[in-house]
């Protein structure tokens, strides 16, 4: 977004909330810090979410801690009643991040006041017109349709309320929605608590593959085996969308003082083979970044690391403190965040959500993360905010600081960036920033060094096909946006359908029929009719149908009311008029065939008259037989006679 | 079709829990415990009954361990490393973390203290643990294509779980030890309303109904508070793990015996606590005291004797997610297993003036440091000694609990004039008979098998389950096999199925016809479709 950070005393610098839009903007000269919007940031949610009726949503599945951040926008709406499923760890992490965000907004409230406006001035058309095109596009989208998606920030109460509506799960725990769909989450390896989903219904199963990562330093590994063999798989890992855009070689380390801010990319396109040494490559990147940081503090500069992905932060923290210790330097490390203390404590009590190596630490009686020890030794200082007494007391430069917010628009990072942006010795480490120039705009001119790094956060393009082959779904639903990047043309083992935003894609049902479990006591009461010629046994079903855990069950029904509602029997065969006459005469009924109808004329109707002792007319057709009489008793007697000579099916 | 249950241990007794169940062609071993009352072949289950040829890999699909007590896990390393079982073993995360400690402690006691031949080595334990797959609660784990298992919270000790097993249509639960009421550091057992063919449950307290634990805790705290507020000293003798040797005393008397004793405690009615008892008690009592100290703003020091290390505390801290809700809720501000008021005790403080509370080993005052302290403190009526609910005959603890005698002979030369107050503890993490009945009623399985209890009491519980709940119930002895057929129509199944907690009904009625064609799967069709299949025309009348 295009908001400005809060003004400081002197210059009217401001900022935006750089959005997580995937689109990259060409930066224009017009754009200056002053053009950013001076207001408490709003947030843009999913396109046209505001047009949906919230009460029509049945189930919400949240696949990652980040994925929960927009949920209060939805849960605070009237009529919202959907079941929300999230893994326990995602819920906890997500809640902490939301609380942190809310607390950072307090600063804006103090400055701008807390008046709530449904229609802030910056959303007005005339205001939009005078904005630089980059900002305009951020606000309105390419064709202006995204304007409606803007929402004011939620409150702490909204977050609390949202958390109360959540159903949290463990990995591989089965929950059943409404008796019909069994839902299970399996780790995706991207973040602690992140997951992919399997939905099991009577008509087949669906896998939902969100961003997944084969290499994971903390989170439990990507459990792709559990996603195997589904009838449909929704591929929803969009991380490779930006892949090609980030393949730029050049210096990993650029000096951003130059007017033209080239995003220093830290990413290589290769090395994504399934059994690659991604692990090693990651480690190398990590070591490189950390050694840059160490160099920097050796020079007397400070290092600022905005908190983005938890996984990266934890790795940087661990690696940096190790390097610091190795180089015997006494440089303080600060973590400034309202939730950091709770987060770090929590991380040490969740062995069930961590990768194998971390779990081994539990089994050998070691702490899961080293930071507990570092905290005790006062090598890391955790404080809730920048004004906290403890921080002021201990503050020492140069230092290494981890703090929110990655957008560089709010939180402690703004203050520290202002402090250090003019210092060429200091270093800012950004992770996967879509538009670093826009992000740094309010702080211009930036003399401090900027290092941008990118760690894989999804399935690399090269791995998509091998992975899908391993998973063996019958149908793959693939994003249209990624169509050009992958080639499924020679893919024979599964069908590929492409989906696009806001369009419903119909997938033909894989299973025509569903299974039913029939109770043993009911089955023992079946009355079977055998058709020898066809080799078929047939029985009529009578019982109570129940749907439970995604399966149909049929049980014996003792309810008299229901069973008395007997529907008519099904008969087949032809009524042989001669047989009927014989049968009738046996019963003492005198009947005669109407002449001229026995050889089945074009109408195929034969007519039989009975005279004694009852008077009636029987019309026999190929598919129906009608009895006409004045007396109900007579009708039922005749009915029995006909019934006897027909085959009863069931 | 039938579920075949072979009880290898804990049949009409408490000890070496081990049950092998054959369910729809899969054979699963639940628990692999040792009997601490024996030193001969009887201490392990008779594994030869599983496979006479000794090929256990083919004979078993998996092993499931419910918790880390030795009577549930004690024979595991022996079975996997010495007998050669190489298949998967499942247990919860805490059980996997704590079981090797238990096994190692036991091994040490056997070898170092008793001088017995070791039945398995440290390497065996390490190798054995590599075969273990840790599971989380409620996870549905697919052991193989047809066999799925799931752990439910059992509350008995940290990480204790009941296990649900499903193979095809057959479903069962093995409870292990469980507790139906929450206590201060663990929650109560929790399970879904499942449709079971068989429930195998422990029955330690088959006939006992206990009063509330809170009342007993309150009493305990009150006694301590009264003592310290009048300047007295409190001695809490507790059980150390073999690991926490009494280096001070140098006396090795009784630790192994104490393990035996404790082991019995675990099972039998006067039981004070679980076997790991040692730590679980220490932690539990300590949390109890800490909590009380905070609330009452007491400043009286609490000490742990130098020989008593709370080894397991490190694990407890990381596994706090498996404790009670209350402890979980406060972890971020204060980890309940970080004892703020607890200090180390130095021998020099023995005769220091002023009140204090001291945890010292061994638990039954059979020697060691607790006896030394006892000698100093017992003569004053201001002081208080708490004792476990059950003490082995011959120990000072036993003498204190059994008689009213004020003079106790420690050895031929020493006599102590006991004037201090005595308080007996009786906390047990097992469910009582009401809890067992509640669980059986809640699950309403088609069959119940009782294990882990005393025969006469089990018999009476069996009759109750049979008469009150109308569920066939058995309590087979060791090495007996019980078949529970699961294909007979059973009316209880139907009743239960029609009364789920929440049911949405509609009145719609559909017509369906079940068709079985030779060599094809049975299917249900609409009646009109039958005619097409039969190639016949419908005839309406």
TrEMBL record, chain A:
<dbReference type="InterPro" id="IPR001279">
    <property type="entry name" value="Metallo-B-lactamas"/>
</dbReference>
<comment type="similarity">
    <text>Belongs to the metallo-beta-lactamase superfamily. RNA-metabolizing metallo-beta-lactamase-like family. INTS9 subfamily.</text>
</comment>
<protein>
    <recommendedName>
        <fullName>Beta-Casp domain-containing protein</fullName>
    </recommendedName>
</protein>
<dbReference type="Pfam" id="PF10996">
    <property type="entry name" value="Beta-Casp"/>
</dbReference>
<dbReference type="InterPro" id="IPR022712">
    <property type="entry name" value="Beta_Casp"/>
</dbReference>
<dbReference type="InterPro" id="IPR036866">
    <property type="entry name" value="RibonucZ/Hydroxyglut_hydro"/>
</dbReference>
<keyword id="KW-0963">Cytoplasm</keyword>
<feature type="region of interest" description="Disordered">
    <location>
        <begin position="246"/>
        <end position="265"/>
    </location>
</feature>
<dbReference type="GO" id="GO:0034472">
    <property type="term" value="P:snRNA 3'-end processing"/>
</dbReference>
<dbReference type="GO" id="GO:0005737">
    <property type="term" value="C:cytoplasm"/>
</dbReference>
<keyword id="KW-0539">Nucleus</keyword>
<feature type="compositionally biased region" description="Polar residues">
    <location>
        <begin position="254"/>
        <end position="265"/>
    </location>
</feature>
<dbReference type="InterPro" id="IPR027074">
    <property type="entry name" value="Integrator_9su"/>
</dbReference>
<feature type="domain" description="Beta-Casp">
    <location>
        <begin position="313"/>
        <end position="434"/>
    </location>
</feature>
<dbReference type="Pfam" id="PF16661">
    <property type="entry name" value="Lactamase_B_6"/>
</dbReference>
<dbReference type="GO" id="GO:0032039">
    <property type="term" value="C:integrator complex"/>
</dbReference>
From TrEMBL, chain B:
<keyword id="KW-0378">Hydrolase</keyword>
<dbReference type="InterPro" id="IPR036866">
    <property type="entry name" value="RibonucZ/Hydroxyglut_hydro"/>
</dbReference>
<dbReference type="InterPro" id="IPR022712">
    <property type="entry name" value="Beta_Casp"/>
</dbReference>
<dbReference type="Pfam" id="PF10996">
    <property type="entry name" value="Beta-Casp"/>
</dbReference>
<feature type="domain" description="Metallo-beta-lactamase">
    <location>
        <begin position="15"/>
        <end position="232"/>
    </location>
</feature>
<dbReference type="GO" id="GO:0004521">
    <property type="term" value="F:RNA endonuclease activity"/>
</dbReference>
<dbReference type="Pfam" id="PF16661">
    <property type="entry name" value="Lactamase_B_6"/>
</dbReference>
<dbReference type="InterPro" id="IPR041897">
    <property type="entry name" value="INTS11-like_MBL-fold"/>
</dbReference>
<feature type="domain" description="Beta-Casp">
    <location>
        <begin position="284"/>
        <end position="400"/>
    </location>
</feature>
<dbReference type="GO" id="GO:0016180">
    <property type="term" value="P:snRNA processing"/>
</dbReference>
<dbReference type="Pfam" id="PF07521">
    <property type="entry name" value="RMMBL"/>
</dbReference>
<dbReference type="GO" id="GO:0010197">
    <property type="term" value="P:polar nucleus fusion"/>
</dbReference>
<protein>
    <recommendedName>
        <fullName>Cleavage and polyadenylation specificity factor subunit 3-II</fullName>
    </recommendedName>
</protein>
<dbReference type="InterPro" id="IPR050698">
    <property type="entry name" value="MBL"/>
</dbReference>
<dbReference type="InterPro" id="IPR011108">
    <property type="entry name" value="RMMBL"/>
</dbReference>
<dbReference type="InterPro" id="IPR001279">
    <property type="entry name" value="Metallo-B-lactamas"/>
</dbReference>
<keyword id="KW-0539">Nucleus</keyword>
<dbReference type="GO" id="GO:0005634">
    <property type="term" value="C:nucleus"/>
</dbReference>
<dbReference type="GO" id="GO:0016787">
    <property type="term" value="F:hydrolase activity"/>
</dbReference>
<comment type="similarity">
    <text>Belongs to the metallo-beta-lactamase superfamily. RNA-metabolizing metallo-beta-lactamase-like family. INTS11 subfamily.</text>
</comment>
């Amino acid at each position: 977004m295009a908001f400005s950070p809060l003004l400081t005393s002197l210059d009217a610098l401001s900022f935006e909330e750089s959005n997580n839009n995937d689109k990259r903007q060409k930066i224009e000269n017009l754009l200056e810090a002053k053009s950013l919007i001076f207001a408490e940031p709003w947030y843009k949610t999913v396109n046209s979410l505001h047009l949906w009726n919230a009460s029509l949503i049945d189930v919400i599945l949240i696949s990652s801690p980040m994925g929960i951040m927009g949920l209060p926008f939805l849960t605070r709406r009237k009529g919202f009643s959907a079941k929300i499923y999230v893994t326990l760890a995602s819920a906890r992490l997500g809640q902490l991040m939301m609380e942190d965000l809310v607390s950072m907004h307090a600063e804006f409230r103090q400055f701008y006041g807390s008046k709530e406006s449904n229609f802030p001035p910056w959303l007005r058309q005339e205001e939009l017109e005078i904005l630089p095109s980059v900002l305009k596009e951020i606000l309105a989208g390419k064709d202006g349709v995204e304007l409606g998606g803007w929402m004011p920030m939620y409150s702490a109460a909204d977050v609390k309320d949202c958390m109360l509506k959540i159903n949290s799960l463990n990995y591989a725990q089965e929950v059943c929605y409404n008796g019909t769909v069994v839902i299970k989450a399996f780790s995706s390896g991207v973040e602690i608590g992140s997951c992919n989903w399997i939905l099991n219904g009577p008509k087949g199963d669906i896998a939902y593959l969100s961003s997944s990562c084969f290499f994971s330093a903390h989170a439990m590994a990507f459990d792709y085996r559990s996603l195997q063999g589904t009838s449909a798989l929704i591929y929803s890992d969009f991380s490779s969308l930006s892949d090609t855009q980030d393949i730029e070689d050049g210096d990993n380390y650029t000096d951003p003082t130059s007017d033209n801010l080239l995003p220093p990319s830290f990413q290589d396109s290769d090395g994504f083979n399934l059994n690659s040494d991604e692990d090693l490559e990651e480690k190398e990147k990590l070591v490189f970044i950390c050694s840059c940081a160490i160099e920097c503090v050796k020079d007397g500069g400070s290092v600022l690391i905005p908190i983005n992905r938890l996984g990266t932060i934890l790795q940087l923290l661990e690696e940096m403190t190790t390097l610091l210790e190795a180089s015997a330097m006494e440089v303080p490390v600060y973590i400034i965040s309202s939730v950091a203390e709770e987060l770090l404590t929590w991380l040490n009590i969740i062995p069930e959500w961590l990768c194998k190596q971390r779990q081994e630490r539990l089994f050998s009686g070691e702490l899961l993360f080293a930071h507990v020890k570092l905290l005790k030794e006062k090598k890391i200082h955790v404080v809730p905010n920048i004004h906290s007494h403890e921080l002021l007391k201990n503050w020492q430069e140069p230092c290494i600081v981890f703090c929110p917010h990655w957008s560089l628009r709010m939180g402690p990072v703004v203050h520290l960036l202002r402090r250090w942006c003019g210092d060429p010795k200091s270093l800012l480490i950004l992770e996967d920033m879509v538009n670093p120039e826009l992000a740094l705009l309010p702080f211009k001119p930036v003399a401090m060094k900027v290092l941008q790094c990118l760690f894989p956060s999804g399935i690399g393009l090269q791995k998509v096909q091998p992975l899908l082959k391993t998973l063996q779904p019958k149908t793959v639903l693939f994003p249209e946006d990624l169509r050009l990047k992958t080639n499924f043309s020679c893919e024979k083992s599964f069908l590929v359908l492409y989906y696009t935003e806001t369009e419903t894609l119909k997938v033909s049902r894989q299973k025509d029929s569903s299974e039913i479990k029939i109770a043993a006591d009911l089955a023992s009461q079946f009355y079977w009719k055998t058709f020898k010629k066809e080799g078929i046994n047939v029985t009529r079903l009578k019982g109570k149908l129940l749907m439970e855990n995604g399966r149909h069950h049929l049980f014996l029904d003792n309810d008299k009311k229901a069973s008395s509602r007997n529907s008519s029997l099904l008969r087949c065969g032809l009524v042989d008029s001669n047989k009927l006459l014989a049968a009738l005469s046996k019963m003492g009924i005198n009947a005669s065939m109407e002449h001229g109808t026995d050889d089945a004329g074009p109408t195929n109707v034969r007519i039989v008259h009975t005279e004694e002792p009852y008077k009636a007319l029987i019309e026999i057709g190929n598919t129906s037989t009608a009895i006409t009489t004045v007396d109900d008793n007579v009708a039922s007697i005749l009915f029995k006679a006909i019934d006897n000579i027909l085959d009863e099916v069931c | 079709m039938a579920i075949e249950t072979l009880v290898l241990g804990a049949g009409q007794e408490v000890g070496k829990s081990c049950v092998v169940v054959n369910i729809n062609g899969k054979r699963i071993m639940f628990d692999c415990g040792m009997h601490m009352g024996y030193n001969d072949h009887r201490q392990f289950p008779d594994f030869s009954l599983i496979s006479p040829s000794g090929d256990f890999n083919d004979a078993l699909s998996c092993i499931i361990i419910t918790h880390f007590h030795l009577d549930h896990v004690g024979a595991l390393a022996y079975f996997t490393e010495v007998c050669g079982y190489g298949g998967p073993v499942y247990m919860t995360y805490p059980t996997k973390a704590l079981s090797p400690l238990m096994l190692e402690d036991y091994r040490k006691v056997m070898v170092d203290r008793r001088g017995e031949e070791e039945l398995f080595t440290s390497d065996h334990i390490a190798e054995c643990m590599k075969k273990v797959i840790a599971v989380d609660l409620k996870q549905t784990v697919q052991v193989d294509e047809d066999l799925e298992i799931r752990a439910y919270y059992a509350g008995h000790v940290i990480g204790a779980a009941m296990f649900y097993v499903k193979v095809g249509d057959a479903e069962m639960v093995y409870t292990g030890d469980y507790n139906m009421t929450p206590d201060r550091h663990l929650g109560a057992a929790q399970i879904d309303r499942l449709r079971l063919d068989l429930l195998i449950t422990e029955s330690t307290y088959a006939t006992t109904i206990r009063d509330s634990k809170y009342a007993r805790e309150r009493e305990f705290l009150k006694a301590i508070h009264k003592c310290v507020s009048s300047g007295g000293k409190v001695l809490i003798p507790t059980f150390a793990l073999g690991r926490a040797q009494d280096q001070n005393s140098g006396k090795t008397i009784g630790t192994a015996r104490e393990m035996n004793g404790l082991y019995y405690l675990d099972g039998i009615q006067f039981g004070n606590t679980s076997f790991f008892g040692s730590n679980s008690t220490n932690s539990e009592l300590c949390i109890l005291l800490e909590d009380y100290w905070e609330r009452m703003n007491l400043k009286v020091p609490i000490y742990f004797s130098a020989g008593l290390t709370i080894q397991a505390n490190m694990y407890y801290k990381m596994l706090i997610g498996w404790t009670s809700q209350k402890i979980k809720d406060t972890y971020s501000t204060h980890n309940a297993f970080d004892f703020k008021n607890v200090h180390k005790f130095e021998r020099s403080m023995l005769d220091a003036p002023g009140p204090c509370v001291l945890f010292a080993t061994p638990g039954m005052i059979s020697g060691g440091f607790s006896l030394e302290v006892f000698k100093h403190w017992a003569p004053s009526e201001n002081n208080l000694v708490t004792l476990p609910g059950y003490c082995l005959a011959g120990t000072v603890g036993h003498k204190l609990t059994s008689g009213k005698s004020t003079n106790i002979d420690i050895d031929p030369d020493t006599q102590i004039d006991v004037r201090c107050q005595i308080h007996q503890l009786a906390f047990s993490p097992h469910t009582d008979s009401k809890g067992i009945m509640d669980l059986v009623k809640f699950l309403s399985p088609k069959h119940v098998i009782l294990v882990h209890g005393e025969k006469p009491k089990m018999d009476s519980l069996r009759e109750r389950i049979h008469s009150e709940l109308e569920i066939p119930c058995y309590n087979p002895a060791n090495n007996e096999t019980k078949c529970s057929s699961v294909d007979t129509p059973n009316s209880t199944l139907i009743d239960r199925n029609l009364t789920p907690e929440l049911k949405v009904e509609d009145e719609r009625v559909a017509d369906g016809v079940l068709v079985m064609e030779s060599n094809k799967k049975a299917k249900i069709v609409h009646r009109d479709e039958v005619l097409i299949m039969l190639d016949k025309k419908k005839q309406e009348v």
